[in-house]
Amino acid sequence: MNTLIENKRKIVNDPIYGFIQIPSDFIFDLIQHPLIQRLRRIKQLGLTYYVYPGATHPRFQHVLGASHLMKEALNILRSKGQEISEEEYTGSIISILLHDLGHGPFSHTLEKSFFKNITHEELSLCYMKLLDKEFSGRLKTGIEIFSGSYPKKFLHQLVSSQLDMDRLDYLRRDSYYTGVTEGIVGSDRIIKMLSTFDNELVIEEKGIYSIEKFLIARRLMYWQVYLHKTVIASEQMLIKVIKRAKKMHKNGENIFLTPSLKFFFDNNINEKGLLDKRFDNVTPLEAFAKIDDNDIIVCIKEWQYHKDKVLSILSKGLINRDLFKVSIQKNKFTKTEIEELQKKVMKNYKLSEKDLKYFVISDSVKNNAYSKNLDERINILGKKNQITDIAVASDVSNVSALSRIVKKYYICHPKIH
Amino acid sequence: MNTLIENKRKIVNDPIYGFIQIPSDFIFDLIQHPLIQRLRRIKQLGLTYYVYPGATHPRFQHVLGASHLMKEALNILRSKGQEISEEEYTGSIISILLHDLGHGPFSHTLEKSFFKNITHEELSLCYMKLLDKEFSGRLKTGIEIFSGSYPKKFLHQLVSSQLDMDRLDYLRRDSYYTGVTEGIVGSDRIIKMLSTFDNELVIEEKGIYSIEKFLIARRLMYWQVYLHKTVIASEQMLIKVIKRAKKMHKNGENIFLTPSLKFFFDNNINEKGLLDKRFDNVTPLEAFAKIDDNDIIVCIKEWQYHKDKVLSILSKGLINRDLFKVSIQKNKFTKTEIEELQKKVMKNYKLSEKDLKYFVISDSVKNNAYSKNLDERINILGKKNQITDIAVASDVSNVSALSRIVKKYYICHPKIH
Amino acid sequence: MNTLIENKRKIVNDPIYGFIQIPSDFIFDLIQHPLIQRLRRIKQLGLTYYVYPGATHPRFQHVLGASHLMKEALNILRSKGQEISEEEYTGSIISILLHDLGHGPFSHTLEKSFFKNITHEELSLCYMKLLDKEFSGRLKTGIEIFSGSYPKKFLHQLVSSQLDMDRLDYLRRDSYYTGVTEGIVGSDRIIKMLSTFDNELVIEEKGIYSIEKFLIARRLMYWQVYLHKTVIASEQMLIKVIKRAKKMHKNGENIFLTPSLKFFFDNNINEKGLLDKRFDNVTPLEAFAKIDDNDIIVCIKEWQYHKDKVLSILSKGLINRDLFKVSIQKNKFTKTEIEELQKKVMKNYKLSEKDLKYFVISDSVKNNAYSKNLDERINILGKKNQITDIAVASDVSNVSALSRIVKKYYICHPKIH
Amino acid sequence: MNTLIENKRKIVNDPIYGFIQIPSDFIFDLIQHPLIQRLRRIKQLGLTYYVYPGATHPRFQHVLGASHLMKEALNILRSKGQEISEEEYTGSIISILLHDLGHGPFSHTLEKSFFKNITHEELSLCYMKLLDKEFSGRLKTGIEIFSGSYPKKFLHQLVSSQLDMDRLDYLRRDSYYTGVTEGIVGSDRIIKMLSTFDNELVIEEKGIYSIEKFLIARRLMYWQVYLHKTVIASEQMLIKVIKRAKKMHKNGENIFLTPSLKFFFDNNINEKGLLDKRFDNVTPLEAFAKIDDNDIIVCIKEWQYHKDKVLSILSKGLINRDLFKVSIQKNKFTKTEIEELQKKVMKNYKLSEKDLKYFVISDSVKNNAYSKNLDERINILGKKNQITDIAVASDVSNVSALSRIVKKYYICHPKIH
Hints:
The structure is a homotetramer.
Chain A: H1 2-8, E1 11-14, E2 18-21, H2 25-31, H3 34-37, H4 59-79, H5 86-97, H6 111-114, H7 120-134, H8 140-147, H9 153-159, H10 165-178, H11 187-193, E3 194-197, E4 200-204, H12 208-226, H13 229-250, H14 259-266, H15 284-288, H16 293-303, H17 309-319, E5 325-329, H18 335-349, E6 361-367, E7 379-381, E8 387-389, H19 390-393, H20 398-402, E9 406-413
Parallel strand pairs in A: 4-7
Antiparallel strand pairs in A: 1-2, 3-4, 5-9, 6-9, 7-8
């Protein structure tokens, strides 16, 4: 009894929003669940801390923050006359609170290293369904909102769209923790401008400039943080070191693995149908819930001393921040450029040709700050209740320009002495 | 002797940059001069405080802040190998410190109410020349930098261009004091990206996103603050009340004027040549130095009780924040719309037709966030030392889009009951 | 009708708290009243901007901010089970919104220059009563709360006590505008810790450290801002220049006065009973409502050129920030020290002895960070519902130490060349 | 060659101070060393993130920040005429940069779990000496400053004293990352007030209020963050789980350990003399450099599933944030209180009496905000060049009050159902 009362007042100190109040006991119980607590052990931005030392904040904090924004957004919509039932209110919060459950060690970077053909969103949904069983069906509405099947479409859009509470939180939070103050987004004002029209999320006309600013801040964060060339280099090293370790394990060589991580080196999970199947009495979903950033780091630390040169070079580089050099440019690197570089690296590190792929990596990254796709666009609510895509509503065509996909080519490789 | 040492350490507390150190005794003496101290009595943003109550910060603070940024910029350029002599260093600081001397009561709003055909920049130059005499020619370099005749063009560009220290300071400062946090500009990073090429100011390539953000922040500040419709309405009321008072004074009617303000009601100064001429033993330059925001407010307060209806309605409205209603839109208001409104206002306030012009005001405002003019553009320094206009250098054409001039039409009038 | 709906959503942008929502139409109408709008023309911190150039924020902004905190505090208390009726809720907001109506030009500094024996709180009450008439008795509860006669004592304590919303706002706001970041107060946390006990305001035990911090921040703001020696010097100059002008006016000498200000140079109002009396058809209350900082500045600007040396020296010094030098110390200045200084000043400025009192000013200032008086103390609510004075509840006796009155002696005078 | 030039401009983005410039190539090389890079894998505040979710910042960031403040402090002292040679300048920065090398997994919490009778400061010194060898004696001055043997005592005081750059950085940084904004310290102002006298660090008199504020902020951070009761509870759980695991390992039971961690379960290192000795060809110093937070977390995750009840209960609680309940009070808990609790816990968890010590923990914590010890006190430099302890110099005796040691008793235990 006493605990319930205590919970009702439960407050969390967040450096971004100040005091965050947990909206209900049920939400509090969800937050206490090991599946969410696990997000404390997964960094929001993976290896980005190698460029921005302060960026070690965990995903756990982000989902709390996004839930807080969701609450604010729902309150604003209600105050503007949009009906939202208690069930819908709680469902929306649940939906955003759990939307990242499917993330594993180093989030996006290793997304394809553990499962083939399964996205983290699909994994999130699987975990939500597990929780729904555990909590006797109380997550039903939340799941419908998350998966987009709930009739009031704007609730899903608050969870996942170009203006969702996810982005609003992570852009601001990542700015705070990296110190890239230019990425700061005026979430307050944007939320104040939210409205609904025909059950779709829209922005009031006077919010146009704020949205432009939001899009530009996002663009800046992409190229200055998420796709920063040194971040790309370290992520590639991480992907390659796991790839090498997997290959060696498969070849029967003895490499150190934490017990939980071993599961994913022993088994290849390449379709959703297998997620609930038992391998040695453990399902992939259960196994995945046990691993986090710590397993990866501990293994790489050990691999530094392995006799395999590829494994040890990559591991030492990662642990001691002796990162790959990287060039990034608008045009593709020519075959000649790549080959010359490969030769130098091969000679410098005395590598065989077949191991080159771990060391000279040439690929591209792309991003557009705004997508004009019909079902994704940000809609502006005009004074006469007309709805217009922001790319059209803006008085200059800058948002339209931002919808162009920018593609950059990079090549990375270890230092050449 | 003691005073000199004290001065050398002189530090001012600025809410934006923290402690600002005055760079030299001579600069300190300039700051102490009545012509600069007068800027303490002129609000940076005129009547904007009627929309943003916190925006009562004085121009004095802005010129101190801009000088601080100038110092930082010069230090960065020096650290990158650009030679800047002590004389040039001090001259640049003087130039930005004094660039606003020509502003009078309510800055831009009343710029045309006191002088015809003379801009505030021209007035600033006149005052600089007066000071140069007073300080035995020590402002020579500063004046050359200000007027653009100094050979190292980048010094002038730091004072006046699309990336000058003036804008960098006022955007950030106005954000701080209005609370429009979205207008915050990353002056730190932009200054770090400054460089020179062929004696012109340029931005290093990796600064492109910061500049985009700066342009968008500026655009937002324009439409959300500087050209906010209620700000426009109050400014129009201010212009009209002065116009009415002038007319009445000219007609020999008795209206209250502070002694200093009377000069400008008695005399019409409409060409630069007259600025040094004596009228009743006082030059317009001397007279202008005596007036500030306070004179205007005191007069309007008195005019509230004047028997002239036009004067008293406008004055009461201004003093008690009973402001004109204003509509703003992309298209011109039609003749019919305007005439209908005029009729209503005329009837409601029992006005004669010839006084309508004080009450129904229809005009336009315009702004472009970026100008592509050859001698104004922001130039990007590429990795191979090539120079490109940012509108071209950007990987999408959003900056180019921002160069379109946006024009908005407004109509304002007193409330109709 | 439309206006009402618009009002209901009325939002003000505050740099400290973000968006402030006006709680009701009635409060909005009160804010629009000329008596409150006048507070836009009175600086919160008088001449403090001579030390901290950014500190030109108006009292108007402070009363809005304090009302916002009041709303938050009332919401917290309600959420903890304290019953607060709608009438009490509105009354409390009215009370804090209007608590500063009695302030005049340069607030505290000139408090005694216009009225003798009448405090600004008494004046505030008079204006509230005028407004109560104008608004048909709707301010009754607010007035009772303000004057302390309302039964629920904690409502008055939120308006006026050692932990009132007035202080919580002004300390934080003055920090923001001066840039003295060390004065920042955690108003959020303190308000979260508020509770009631026996209709008195109390602080939950875990808030003790926050209160200590608040008291220390207040102490710092006193000595670093409010009682900064240069602020004291400029305030003394202001008091003296008004005194001199009054004396000259009384002696029949011609000195410039704005029409509104003249009232207080013609009449001496020295008891509350006179406030409603008509002098030349105007009551002192009406006359006082017409003057503000602008009148004083305009007059002093003119007085610079007056032939009276005392008046012109003081006026020039004030306008051009050529301020008195000031020494401040723990011990009284000796008679000899004062006399020697007087001699020097007299000689330097060729003054007569009877005018010395305008130029050499020796007095003291005092402050204690905490008052232990029975009816003022901050009470802590222990876990077992016991109430203890914070000076006793603290685990060390630092708060008790802070209750000592600190007195400092100063002497100020014009520069001696 | 190119790299050197690049290094010279090396800038790190810090959310607290903005851009931090690495002062020299040598410092840059030190920062790149694995021993410092390892601090990226040790959280500054251990398990505090269980109370403040954002507090996952690494020690690496803190040492960079503290070095930055050191640079600022040295510049200020130089500007005040204190001679500081280049060697001393670099030495001081090295000293603070390396002062935390001796920290291991979960910093203070597990300080006694790996070494007996050896402090982390002693370990830091050992690592510095290793580095000194590696860098051919270039750390000599830095080591002398760190160990206090360098003649200019103020340099050591900047590294370790009641006003050192260590505290100045961590208080501000921990405030930023926890969101406990009240702990923010005005490091700017304090550093501006630093001076030297007789080779000792002193504070200028006008800085007294800032120091008071600093001490109160520190006091608040202690009781609200560092000694927060839930932080204490989780730290006790961590200490106990390691203790249990060690005991079991010693008893020959099979428990999972990462290879690096095994060293410390196999060997007891209880005196400084052993640190360089080889155990199975590895010295304790080498072994310690290999472990960090990740090893501990990975092990505890595995231990959840161990059949030993004590180990699994503690591990599950720690991983899933099912933490011990804790009571904290001014007085000792009575024997009866403790015994009753023990009985309940024993019954509830079906524990044997000898395992109770892992579950019911009663101890005390203490802290004083200021120490008056002769060689530790903060000295104030008066206007007449006299030196006074701040506890005496303050105009009230609040600092003196803060020197009282506050001791609190706590008892913690798992939830009783």
